């Protein structure tokens, strides 16, 4: 076993050791011991001297359970597949330890980059991306810099990938230059992360910095950053070393000076600071340092770990200590996706928060389980990976690809299924079998025989499997894509081997080997083209006959431009450009005429569908994955997608789900608030309190079990907080009202939100404190989270819980400046009313208070005493009309609008039935309604139908009187003379233009504000028509006049040239005979199809004839253009006169509309 394989095996031993301390599916653990996929590529690079050199490279994707794989690409002569696999494994664990949603990946090329020029290095980098283009991607595999690669190389790779994808894709690679989307703080991220770990060691062990001596082995990029930060922080660095030497100084080394010397004189240089197995069983016993922080990957062997543990040394493992690099890479990926970039200070603050948080988690696990920190770190990572596996659907993800039928197993391994005597094995064919086909031509008889003996079937062509395109099933499409990708990889490998063999054989003049190498190159090219063609067919979805036609044309060198050349002349001698412009103009005119009618017809169709009674939005199915008992009467239910993967909806912290529950004969719908954070993409949780009189909660708490499925409607609700609304928030929860607050708190802490959070809980006693342990743990971990608890039924204050109910004094004590905070309240109505009154007295503005009820606000209906006769409720006399369903009824006493709608069979979606969810929102067309609770309405909903629509309409109408006045003044001479004494016509024209634009804009805003009046619709349409006509008349017509003048001047020049050419042709019989085929109309029509530029030098007579034909075509084109423009100008001049009449009709309609708007506006104010 090589040293590189030892590295991977060493990593797997640590995985097995950590698995003893976590609960993880054995199959999932076995899956982690093998990389998900490995690519071995050959990269041909043209060197500066013209020679071709083949480089080998690897890319490994270890595991993508928690997200796309992530890992660096290194250029080094000692790169080996075993090393790359180990690094990819470590990256999986490192991402899990840091809590970022990535899996592990790694790549490398066997090359000494110092031997290459900059141009050769760029060609190598781009060539590597070309080979990996189908393997990497922003959501699949994200490379980054590593040993001997830097931001410049990452920039080349990102640019090459973007070129291949035909779109800029900055999030495919991290570690890029800042101008290309790189993140600030990336250069020193690895060293800074290790520095933050050392700071946590200091906090846990109460060091005195001046007494701590530091030695840095590996004074490279990360080592220098760690040393610089520790030196700046007052630590005494006594030793530094790299691959060429070391420096020791008892009173401390000047680190900035040492860094300058290294960069200028390279006295401590050429460091390969990612060196593995530096601390081994041979030298571990000589180490006296009590604390070791591993900034490199895998520097300590398993044997050395045991020795260091016996010596009592604390080792901060590599997967934790150097996680700063991948964490900031995640920040860069996030910034690329959002298109918003952070400051360096913000990057460093978030990095410090994550490193401190994860160090504390690993340290606590190490202390609790009495294990070393390395094992604790791996256990911490496995725990998170296990949670992701569980959320995806337990172990089915891992073993689904391993279940092979006995028949398929027997087909691939015949020797293992038959008996010893008669079964076909590796030795030969089965008894009685005839000659078997091998791989076919191209590889020779010897290879055919070898393949026959191995029992391998001939590779099937992919083309027959593509005959069903574009109707190929999704499952079969995925299988073909994998097979095609395998063909491309195999072809690339054969190409690399063939080029390498050809290079060696050419140097030795071995012609037989050359022939064998070229055969291998042809075979590799054939495999690659086969896979590539299948990929293109699958991606583009083209029918096989179209693909075959393109192949046939390419093989016969048939150029598509032949068809283009034949179509240069169209009907009536129009050029293609002229004809296309005319077609576009006609199509535009037809589209504008029919657009309005189509839109209205489509809108009527949609409204008809929506007006159907009981039209309830369809839900989606979810599966119950886990049920947790929070308190005696509260349970948390975890929901996952029925078929694994991400949950089928997105939500915001504080929203709720509406469940359709099979209770009784008719299903009921109930809403429950989501308590999990939207940062968890693979599951969603709701927390439900069992109510004796609640049919929905009884069903969820008593009858529901793991594995059941429920139908839910997409999340809704406006009681949300995402961190963007304010930089400080107070969350006040009463009882089970803690659920939306928990969702908000989990989301904010998962995002490392820097704002201030005050979490205030009011409950009976500790037994009724939901999420108590998790809230305490979050408060200990996050400095910006402050938890305050008031309990009404405890005898004395315990664990910091205050005795009694929530009071104004407690709020002022816990949050002194509460008036400047955004406040969210959730709980029973009585609790919320009391809390809002307290907040009002504390000076909190009403707009800063947001509430959600947990409990009914409906007044209880009066009970009928025994012996009394129950009377039917009397009608109130108020008549309700539901416009869409065209149903009417009288409202009964103590009846809500929703109940009235249900009584007459009008289907309206609902959830809470008390006005808090906003699902049953309907528009009031006329009349008045009252609402006891209007939390479900947004401010714009409450303002609907306000006077602003009338303001816009009146103002717009007034402005549009200015163009009307301009038209009257312009056409009345006496009035014009009077007005121009005070205002010039040029000024009036400017007013006419500006008012003519602004007025219609306000009218359109007005119509959009309340777009339901027939007059308003007609007004808007005619306004647009008048404005467009005015602009065309002012600007387009002047342009037409100028173009007509230019075309007439061009026509004069063409006619002069035509007359001169006619004289030359008329005096030459040969030239006249040449023109005869073009004299008739149909011959003239077809002339353009056959008249082409001569391939040889024509005679003078023929040249003059061709010139004359061209001039005649040009004259006809120009004359047609002039006639078309003049006709358009004439007709549009008539339209402009008609548009004046439309303007007067428009203002008449506007007068009616505005008067009605003012009238109804005054009624609204009353």
UniProtKB/TrEMBL annotation:
<dbReference type="InterPro" id="IPR006097">
    <property type="entry name" value="Glu/Leu/Phe/Val/Trp_DH_dimer"/>
</dbReference>
<protein>
    <recommendedName>
        <fullName>glutamate dehydrogenase [NAD(P)(+)]</fullName>
        <ecNumber>1.4.1.3</ecNumber>
    </recommendedName>
</protein>
<dbReference type="InterPro" id="IPR036291">
    <property type="entry name" value="NAD(P)-bd_dom_sf"/>
</dbReference>
<feature type="domain" description="FAD-binding FR-type">
    <location>
        <begin position="617"/>
        <end position="722"/>
    </location>
</feature>
<keyword id="KW-0472">Membrane</keyword>
<keyword id="KW-0479">Metal-binding</keyword>
<feature type="transmembrane region" description="Helical">
    <location>
        <begin position="947"/>
        <end position="969"/>
    </location>
</feature>
<dbReference type="InterPro" id="IPR039261">
    <property type="entry name" value="FNR_nucleotide-bd"/>
</dbReference>
<feature type="transmembrane region" description="Helical">
    <location>
        <begin position="989"/>
        <end position="1008"/>
    </location>
</feature>
<feature type="region of interest" description="Disordered">
    <location>
        <begin position="404"/>
        <end position="449"/>
    </location>
</feature>
<feature type="transmembrane region" description="Helical">
    <location>
        <begin position="1138"/>
        <end position="1162"/>
    </location>
</feature>
<dbReference type="Pfam" id="PF00970">
    <property type="entry name" value="FAD_binding_6"/>
</dbReference>
<dbReference type="InterPro" id="IPR012675">
    <property type="entry name" value="Beta-grasp_dom_sf"/>
</dbReference>
<keyword id="KW-0408">Iron</keyword>
<dbReference type="InterPro" id="IPR006096">
    <property type="entry name" value="Glu/Leu/Phe/Val/Trp_DH_C"/>
</dbReference>
<dbReference type="Pfam" id="PF00208">
    <property type="entry name" value="ELFV_dehydrog"/>
</dbReference>
<keyword id="KW-0812">Transmembrane</keyword>
<dbReference type="InterPro" id="IPR006095">
    <property type="entry name" value="Glu/Leu/Phe/Val/Trp_DH"/>
</dbReference>
<dbReference type="InterPro" id="IPR001433">
    <property type="entry name" value="OxRdtase_FAD/NAD-bd"/>
</dbReference>
<dbReference type="Pfam" id="PF00111">
    <property type="entry name" value="Fer2"/>
</dbReference>
<dbReference type="InterPro" id="IPR033524">
    <property type="entry name" value="Glu/Leu/Phe/Val_DH_AS"/>
</dbReference>
<keyword id="KW-0001">2Fe-2S</keyword>
<dbReference type="GO" id="GO:0051537">
    <property type="term" value="F:2 iron, 2 sulfur cluster binding"/>
</dbReference>
<feature type="compositionally biased region" description="Gly residues">
    <location>
        <begin position="420"/>
        <end position="447"/>
    </location>
</feature>
<feature type="transmembrane region" description="Helical">
    <location>
        <begin position="576"/>
        <end position="597"/>
    </location>
</feature>
<dbReference type="GO" id="GO:0006538">
    <property type="term" value="P:L-glutamate catabolic process"/>
</dbReference>
<dbReference type="InterPro" id="IPR001041">
    <property type="entry name" value="2Fe-2S_ferredoxin-type"/>
</dbReference>
<dbReference type="InterPro" id="IPR046346">
    <property type="entry name" value="Aminoacid_DH-like_N_sf"/>
</dbReference>
<comment type="similarity">
    <text>Belongs to the Glu/Leu/Phe/Val dehydrogenases family.</text>
</comment>
<feature type="transmembrane region" description="Helical">
    <location>
        <begin position="1014"/>
        <end position="1037"/>
    </location>
</feature>
<keyword id="KW-0411">Iron-sulfur</keyword>
<dbReference type="InterPro" id="IPR017927">
    <property type="entry name" value="FAD-bd_FR_type"/>
</dbReference>
<dbReference type="InterPro" id="IPR033922">
    <property type="entry name" value="NAD_bind_Glu_DH"/>
</dbReference>
<dbReference type="InterPro" id="IPR017938">
    <property type="entry name" value="Riboflavin_synthase-like_b-brl"/>
</dbReference>
<dbReference type="Pfam" id="PF00175">
    <property type="entry name" value="NAD_binding_1"/>
</dbReference>
<dbReference type="InterPro" id="IPR036010">
    <property type="entry name" value="2Fe-2S_ferredoxin-like_sf"/>
</dbReference>
<dbReference type="Pfam" id="PF02812">
    <property type="entry name" value="ELFV_dehydrog_N"/>
</dbReference>
<keyword id="KW-1133">Transmembrane helix</keyword>
<dbReference type="InterPro" id="IPR008333">
    <property type="entry name" value="Cbr1-like_FAD-bd_dom"/>
</dbReference>
<dbReference type="GO" id="GO:0004352">
    <property type="term" value="F:glutamate dehydrogenase (NAD+) activity"/>
</dbReference>
<keyword id="KW-0560">Oxidoreductase</keyword>
<dbReference type="InterPro" id="IPR006058">
    <property type="entry name" value="2Fe2S_fd_BS"/>
</dbReference>
